């Protein structure tokens, strides 16, 4: 008789954004004429950069002719894209990577979800709180989270609260942990770590033999000099960190699916007998066994953003979204609401009025202003009392949403 | 200190096809002028069907305009493709599926590799032998395979030999197992199960509470009436089987990446306390957490093969490859070699001459005939003494390869 992985049964049945979609749908049905602006989910609204469109058309045409057809590609991604990534994203920051250290995939969600495959169940995992739900849920599935308590915390995870009280800078764990997930610029708070703050984490990881899972999916939105784009800007990180990147937000690839993961040759973890194993060949074996490469067409689309014209087009998109973020920060201030983020990240994180919970404020904002947000509590217990707004909407929608918030609260 | 999943360290370092590629590369370097024909890896050579090319061009154009842009899609796949699959692949065979039972993905390799996520480590897994390596390797990673013995068998797996002695029809397990992987039409042997033979498996699974993982990636190549295309043609299979399908070989999508998995609502597995859980919501949760949907462009390309013109184009491709298979069967016969498969599958499985091992015959065939094959032993211990040839090559190459084999052996 087949036995299920019972860890799955501990998970709440649905995903945060599915809950929100259901609530919004119910509201729309009850208020059919209402004009609703969606600043909830972090999905882009601008079309793909024209360079990617053109590259994908060419790639589709290649697939129509047996002389240029591409069948199975390398599970790790095509050399043309890996080279473009290394030269475009890392060399300009003084970081050298070998092609075998970069693994192209169908997205950072897959990679951050699957990376646990190569780790033992017997690891203590730390997460910042609030946090991108995939890190928590995938570790629940992997049997590392223990039990869900009434306070919304999993007994086996170490939570690192990030709130206004500590300026959203997580303290180092006060107990022994083995793996830490860090996402900077942060989803959902939109806040960052400075180079010095990230160095503390790398030094801590090296001193305590901790593995850092560094998610820098939002690095393209960084505008301030002292915010590192890659953890490998910090000395020693090649020995203790895996980095995840995505084309989703940078280049609008949420529907096209492409990301990559860097596993330096020096990153190792322990065996039970105290010896060490390099993680790069393990991740390679995982990808070769359970993945068959990203679409050739997608990879050609991703490569195109590294051309000079591609960079210019991506920059325009990012500037557009960051103008939204600026308008939102200013609008919230004018409405008397305290907010963070939106300077180096496409998310603005705001404090709900005293005594109003995340879900309550979410519903008020939907009802009074017709604006869909994401309740901070959905990202973890320390997100209670906060709301996330996404800057990925259309400019006119963002401005109109702020005008409505001012009218409602100002 | 982070701990690795030590199961990974038990796996041989590289994948079968990587070994072969290395051997062929070494041979080419030693024999630079030699004309080599590749009938090893099962990758297609015809370009994509024109309907898919046109659909993908349209989809790329949609991504260029914010009014028709597609961002995040459903993790389970778009409704348009799921409906086309149900109406095109199942309804004509009298099988009703609900949209929520079909999960579109980036390929059957990902799904057959990841399905173990929802199962406990404490399952005894049976595999036919020889077998597609992903089933074995992913269960090694999941901790279900035990130790690799000197005979090439994993101590924790139950092997079901399929050789000429039993006409490649696996006997039911002679000990208690919980999960069985069946791939029919079979990779690598190209053989099939009749409706009656598959019914025995379904009846056995229902009687013994066994979960069947049914991989029907090659169903489009079936030419004989008594060979089932889907396990759900067999009564009761909805209660005990998960089915995997692929667009890779059917429609040449090896480089575009699309497949799907059917998890009927009735399929359940046990908890330790003896109660049962449905697997459909577990797989849904897995995909929602660790996957973000297949590329929109890819899904439009896949949808197109279900149009009347698409079906005609796919049929032409399959006929082309199956004409290769027929030529190969006839050529091998003329060369005095016993062979199976190639009637309902794009693989021909041949017996090496008495006393010649798989790898030895692979090397002889490369050296004497300039033909790349896949050694049967690479698919498992019972593959020793056999060789797989793929019918996915160009017609002229297949014919020339057979002429060379006749000259060498005939």
UniProtKB/TrEMBL annotation, chains A, B:
One Pfam family, short name: Aminotran_1_2
Residues that bear N6-(pyridoxal phosphate)lysine: 249
Residues the record lists as binding pyridoxal 5'-phosphate: 72, 108-109, 132, 187, 218, 246-248, 257, 292
Highest taxon above the source species: Bacteria
Transmembrane segments: none
Primary enzyme class: transferase
Domain (Aminotransferase class I/classII large): residue spans on this chain: 35-137, 176-405
Cofactor requirement: pyridoxal 5'-phosphate
Pathway connected to this protein: Amino-acid biosynthesis; L-lysine biosynthesis via DAP pathway; LL-2,6-diaminopimelate from (S)-tetrahydrodipicolinate (aminotransferase route): step 1/1
Keyword terms: Aminotransferase, Pyridoxal phosphate, Transferase
SUPFAM superfamilies in alphabetical order: PLP-dependent transferases
Catalytic activity reported: (2S,6S)-2,6-diaminopimelate + 2-oxoglutarate = (S)-2,3,4,5-tetrahydrodipicolinate + L-glutamate + H2O + H(+)
Positions annotated to bind substrate: 15, 42, 109, 132, 187, 292, 388
Gene3D superfamilies listed in its UniProt record: Aspartate Aminotransferase, domain 1 (3.90.1150.10), Type I PLP-dependent aspartate aminotransferase-like (Major domain) (3.40.640.10)
Similarity comment: Belongs to the class-I pyridoxal-phosphate-dependent aminotransferase family. LL-diaminopimelate aminotransferase subfamily.
NCBIfam families in the cross-refs: DAPAT_plant (TIGR03542)
HAMAP family: DapL_aminotrans_1 (MF_01642)
Protein purpose: Involved in the synthesis of meso-diaminopimelate (m-DAP or DL-DAP), required for both lysine and peptidoglycan biosynthesis. Catalyzes the direct conversion of tetrahydrodipicolinate to LL-diaminopimelate.
UniProt-recorded name of the protein: LL-diaminopimelate aminotransferase
UniProt source species: Candidatus Avibacteroides avistercoris
UniProt lineage: Bacteria, Pseudomonadati, Bacteroidota, Bacteroidia, Bacteroidales
Gene: dapL
């Amino acid at each position: 008789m087949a036995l299920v992985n019972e860890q799955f049964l501990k998970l709440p049945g649905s995903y945060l954004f599915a809950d929100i979609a259901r609530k919004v749908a119910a509201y729309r049905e009850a208020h059919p004429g209402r004009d609703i602006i969606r600043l909830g989910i972090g999905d882009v609204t601008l079309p793909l950069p024209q360079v990617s469109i053109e590259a994908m058309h060419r790639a589709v045409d290649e697939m129509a002719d047996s002389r240029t057809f591409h069948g199975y590609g390398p599970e790790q991604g095509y050399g043309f894209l890996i080279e473009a990534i290394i030269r475009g994203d890392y060399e300009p920051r003084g970081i050298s990577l070998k092609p075998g250290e970069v693994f192209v995939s169908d997205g950072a969600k897959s990679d951050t979800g699957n990376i646990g495959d190569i780790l033992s169940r017997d690891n203590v995992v730390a997460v910042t709180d609030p946090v991108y739900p995939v890190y928590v849920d995938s570790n629940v599935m992997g049997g590392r989270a223990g039990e869900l308590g009434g306070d919304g915390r999993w007994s086996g995870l170490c939570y690192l609260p990030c709130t206004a009280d500590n300026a959203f800078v997580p303290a180092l764990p006060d107990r022994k942990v083995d793996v830490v997930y860090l996402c900077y610029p942060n989803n959902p708070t939109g806040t960052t770590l400075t180079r010095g703050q990230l160095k503390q984490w790398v030094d801590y990881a090296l001193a305590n033999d901790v593995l850092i899972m560094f998610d820098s999916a939002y690095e393209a939105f960084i505008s301030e000099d002292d915010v590192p784009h890659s953890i490998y800007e910090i000395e020693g990180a090649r020995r203790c960190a895996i980095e995840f990147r995505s084309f989703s937000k940078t280049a609008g690839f949420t529907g096209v699916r492409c990301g990559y993961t860097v596993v330096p040759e020096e990153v190792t973890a322990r065996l039970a007998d105290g010896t060490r194993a390099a993680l790069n060949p393990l991740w390679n074996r995982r990808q070769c066994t359970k993945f068959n490469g990203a679409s050739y067409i997608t990879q050609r689309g991703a490569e195109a953003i590294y051309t000079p014209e591609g960079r210019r087009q991506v920059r325009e998109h990012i500037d557009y979204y960051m103008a939204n973020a600026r308008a939102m920060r200013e609008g919230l201030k004018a409405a008397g609401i305290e907010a963070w983020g939106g300077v180096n990240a496409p998310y603005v994180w705001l404090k709900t009025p005293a005594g109003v919970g995340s879900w309550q404020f979410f519903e008020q904002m939907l009802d009074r202003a017709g604006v869909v947000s994401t309740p901070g509590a959905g990202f973890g217990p320390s997100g209670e009392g906060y709301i996330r707004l996404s800057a990925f909407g259309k400019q006119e929608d963002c401005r109109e949403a702020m005008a409505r918030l001012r009218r409602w609260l100002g």
